[in-house]
């Protein structure tokens, strides 16, 4: 049997993230930039991307009273001036990744329902579109991503059936999937996000630069080709 590098099995990229994590959106953009950098290769790496649920602050109320600085002051015990300086720094890094963060508009909320919606979208084959819509809504548009009705609106905006999304959220049918992702994260020892598991064997923590992702993917894809050549021989 002959195997060809170009038909090698795609590289799996499993990403644990929270849509309320600013570094997760930056990491997503950096991964996309890394993939774009490899797209022109003669034998560009092929990938399958799957997002997994991770709640950074599961005790956060759906309707948090206060702005992002208020939340971080209470959550991290930092003075407002230090928090605002940190948010300015993150905003600048996001800008470099092509993202216009608006912490002045952001509505902090509990994200478990957003994670349930992501699993609903996954079942409909639209998980990546839903991930992008939720993160953009949260970080750049000041939309609420914790209430069921608002989430159903966002689902409809990417072409999913609004009533079906509402039913999935109200029934909590995907809560078990959220908990399974969280259990897997615990088994892997993941304590912070974003966390990328590549090909089920390489763990990459944090919002790495695009060139880091491109390098790992090229290395793995080249190894696939070498393995295929061995089998051909």
From TrEMBL:
InterPro entries: DSBA-like_thioredoxin_dom, Thioredoxin-like_sf. One of its GO terms (molecular function) is oxidoreductase activity. Residues 13-217 form the DSBA-like thioredoxin domain. It comes from the Bacteria. CDD domains: DsbA_FrnE. This is DSBA-like thioredoxin domain protein.
